[in-house]
Write a structure and sequence with these properties.
By secondary structure, the protein is an alpha/beta fold. The protein is 39% helix and 12% strand. Strands 3-2-1-4-5-6 form a six-stranded parallel beta sheet, with helices on both faces. α1 (24-32) runs parallel beside α4 (103-112). The longest helix has 15 residues, at 165-179. It is globular and about 55 Å long.
Length: 209
């Protein structure tokens, strides 16, 4: 029998970190100045960062004046991609890579962003989906089962295929929908506190009725 228990997502009830990085006010102003797509998570192959950057390079070439914001530390097997980020001509202009970000700073980044872009090809849960909903931030994400389970009808999905084309198409479609406010809203996405998550798990394993 399959037992499903969702994780908790109430960071304010824990001990959130605080503080800001240098030039944070400049960065936040740049994010607020145009449509900004936010990606969150360790940089590793399964997260879809390489395909997403390729998609934005094509969109920029096509005349789309939008931001890509990456919040996450360097992971593994990504040396070439990290080098491309560090040497990118759009870095700190329309491309931002932020590491060592506190919970307090991340809250501000969510507030200044326009949309969460979650391109990961495999996840156990997908906490950024919940965090985006907590900030009423629209969501574009890959069409994989776990994201359908967590986000339901509260996200706009792109095809789970290789390459940048599905991401390009999804962003263009979402920007069109944004013009008449017809994109899926994340406000209906439900989430649990850690207390509720623990109760749900205990019920799943039969500890409580």
């Amino acid at each position: 029998m399959l037992l499903i228990s969702h994780l908790g997502a109430d960071i304010s009830s824990s001990k959130p970190s605080s503080g800001f990085l240098d030039k944070h006010e400049v960065i936040l102003a740049k994010l607020a100045s145009k449509v900004s797509f936010l990606m969150i998570g360790t940089i590793e192959p399964r997260k879809g960062y390489s395909e997403t950057l390729a998609a934005f390079e094509q969109l920029w070439s096509d005349g789309y004046d939008i931001n890509l914001v990456i919040v996450g530390k360097e992971g593994w097997l990504v040396d070439d991609f990290v080098l491309a980020l560090k040497e990118h001509s759009e870095l700190d202009k329309r491309l931002f890579w932020l590491t060592g970000v506190s919970d307090e700073y991340l809250e501000s980044i969510y507030d200044k962003s326009s949309c969460l872009l979650f391109s990961s090809k495999a996840e156990g849960f997908g906490l950024p989906l919940i965090e985006a909903a907590q900030h009423n931030l629209p969501i574009i994400t890959r069409d994989i089962p776990i994201f359908r389970e967590v986000a339901g009808q509260s996200a706009y999905y792109f095809r789970n295929e290789e390459g940048s084309a599905p991401i390009i198409g999804a962003i263009k479609d979402w920007l069109d929908m944004r013009q008449n406010d017809s994109y899926p809203k994340s406000t209906c996405l439900s989430w649990l506190t850690w207390k509720e998550s623990t109760a749900q798990l205990l019920k799943c394993i039969g500890v409580i009725a």
